[in-house]
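Q: Hi! First time doing this. I have a protein sequence and I read that you can turn it into a structure. Is that right? Here it is:
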Amino acid sequence: MMVLGFQANADYFKWELEVFAEGPGTQMETVPVIGEESLFKWGKDGNCRISDAWTRLEPELTIEGKTLLCEKGEERKSVSLICRDNRSARRYNRAKEIYPEPLTANLLLDESLAHESAYLRFRCYF
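A: Yes, that's right. Below is the predicted 3D structure, encoded as structure tokens:
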């Protein structure tokens, strides 16, 4: 008899990265967050990706967290976001509820050039 172990990962919430490559208030591109693949190229040798992700499921509470990590040479910037849901009926939207606005965390990659620096908005929603 052979027993195989595996780990399954699934996102309960929808995660996305809104990229304003030329600075806040400029044209935006939405990048879905799937796995730990590269999400944004920061300059020539920089990269932004998910560095940590976790989910906690309990009978009446679901919590999910992710950390967005941007690295360029020795420079590192990160932001973490936690989404939570404590309504069991929400999973199937039985009450036809209007969901709240997405939770967001913002990251400005070059604070010295704030008006033209790449700006990232990390979001999660149900």
